[in-house]
């Protein structure tokens, strides 16, 4: 298939469009192939968009698989850290003891499955929103317009794929033998609480998009402008790795601001299908009540449980993603726009 695409697809030279600060490599790729003119059907016909999607999907799948143990460690700390007060080392030992080496990758399968639909939806929604904001004008978007378009794209994609996010959290937290498969997980939690269970923790997730996107974008644009100015003085263009580094740092800043909402979201997701079994007070079953409970019992630091493994996976995840993406797109014969 790869050889066929290399030979049959028509490559066109495209102008570099707006870069949007985004949380992972796949969205960085989408921003790099955005253009000022032409619509999505033109790029589909040209065979470029699908090959970038494939390269980004492969990179994301490999990266998430390699860093899955850190991601599961983060989820375990977010959900159980306050009650059990265990260290990262003790939590990791528990994961190994309870599920073995294979158990470190629980929830990774569905995490990989949702890459393609989530990224494709986000790219399409951002592209459409950008065209709607521009109208008939041929111009770059202002920073607040990019924030609006990026937030809308993120909100739409998250709304559509959110049930997969809930299932990913439940699968990551499951004990040995609790679920036989992804389908079995979906069936059991649906029977327990109905369809609404698939949107448990949806509101803190949605509200977290705005501060994350805003800070991420503002920091990214500031760093990019500095790098571009510096490279122009040296009569050079910043390469993709420099821009990716800016995106990684800006993403970390955005995560720092939105992390408390992400923690509350994950704790609510962990309750999916277990409302009757956990016996939790009503305060801990909704966003504001759970937020107040965490601050009251653990202080502000309780809102940042699990952030250490979360940051620890950033550097390897970005490095692996970038390397795999470069190798895959090279094999597909795709040139990165500059």
Helix content: over 70%
What class, by secondary structure content? mainly alpha
Biggest sheet architecture: none
- In whole angstroms, the N-to-C terminal distance is 27 Å
Number of E-type strands: 0
Primary descriptors:
mainly alpha
What does this structure look like?
- With 338 residues, this protein is mainly α.
- The protein is 73% helix and 0% strand.
- The protein is built from 16 helices and no strands.
- The chain has helices at 2-8, 25-32, 40-46, 48-66, 68-84, 88-103, 108-113, 115-134, 143-173, 182-193, 202-233, 240-269, 275-278, 287-298, 307-312, 314-332.
- Residues 1-24 and 33-46 have low confidence and may be disordered.
Brief synopsis:
The chain has 338 residues and is an all-alpha fold. It is built from 16 helices and no strands.
Secondary structure elements and their pairing?
Layout (H helix, E strand, L loop, with lengths): L1 H7 L16 H8 L7 H7 L1 H19 L1 H17 L3 H16 L4 H6 L1 H20 L8 H31 L8 H12 L8 H32 L6 H30 L5 H4 L8 H12 L8 H6 L1 H19 L6
């Amino acid at each position: 298939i790869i050889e066929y695409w290399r030979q049959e697809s028509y490559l066109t030279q495209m102008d570099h469009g707006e870069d949007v600060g985004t949380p992972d490599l796949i969205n960085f790729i989408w921003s790099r192939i955005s253009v000022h003119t032409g619509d999505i059907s033109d790029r589909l016909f040209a065979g470029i968009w699908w090959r970038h999607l494939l390269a980004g999907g492969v990179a994301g799948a490999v990266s998430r698989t390699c860093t899955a143990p850190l991601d599961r460690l983060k989820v375990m700390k977010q959900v159980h850290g306050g009650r059990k007060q265990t260290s990262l080392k003790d939590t990791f030992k528990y994961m190994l003891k309870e599920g073995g080496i294979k158990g470190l990758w629980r929830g990774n399968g569905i995490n990989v499955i949702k890459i393609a639909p989530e990224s494709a939806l986000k790219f399409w929604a951002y592209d459409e929103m950008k065209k709607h904001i521009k109208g008939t004008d041929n111009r770059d978007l202002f920073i607040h317009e990019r924030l609006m378009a990026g937030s809308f794209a993120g909100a739409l994609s998250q709304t559509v794929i959110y049930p997969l996010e809930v299932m990913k959290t439940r699968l990551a937290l499951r004990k040995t033998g609790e679920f036989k498969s992804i389908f079995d997980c979906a069936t059991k939690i649906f029977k327990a609480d109905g369809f609404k269970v698939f949107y448990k923790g949806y509101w803190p997730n949605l509200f977290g998009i705005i501060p994350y996107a805003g800070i991420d974008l503002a920091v990214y644009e500031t760093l990019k402008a500095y790098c571009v100015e510096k490279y122009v003085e040296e009569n050079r263009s910043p390469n993709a790795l420099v821009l990716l580094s800016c995106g990684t740092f800006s993403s970390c800043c955005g995560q720092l601001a939105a992390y408390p909402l992400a923690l509350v979201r994950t704790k609510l997701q962990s309750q999916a299908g277990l409302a009757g079994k956990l016996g939790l007070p009503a305060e801990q079953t909704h966003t504001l009540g759970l937020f107040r409970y965490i601050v009251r019992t653990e202080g502000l630091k309780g809102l940042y449980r699990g952030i250490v493994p979360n940051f620890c996976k950033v550097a390897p995840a970005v490095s692996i993603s970038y390397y795999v993406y470069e190798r895959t797109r090279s094999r597909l014969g795709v040139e990165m726009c500059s």
